[in-house]
Amino acid sequence: MELYIKNVDPQTIQRELIEIYKRAYKGWEEYAYRMDRSIRDYIKWLRKRAPEGFLVAFVDGKPVGFIAVDYNWIDYSGEPIGEIHELVVDPEFQNRGIGKRLLLAGLDVLQRKGHKKFKLWVGKTNTKAQSLYKGFGFREEELRNNWIRMVKEVNNLK
Ligand SMILES: CC(C)(COP(=O)(O)OP(=O)(O)OC[C@H]1O[C@@H](n2cnc3c(N)ncnc32)[C@H](O)[C@@H]1OP(=O)(O)O)[C@@H](O)C(=O)NCCC(=O)NCCS
Question: Which CATH architecture has domain 3-156?
Answer without folding.
Answer: 3-Layer(aba) Sandwich (3.40)
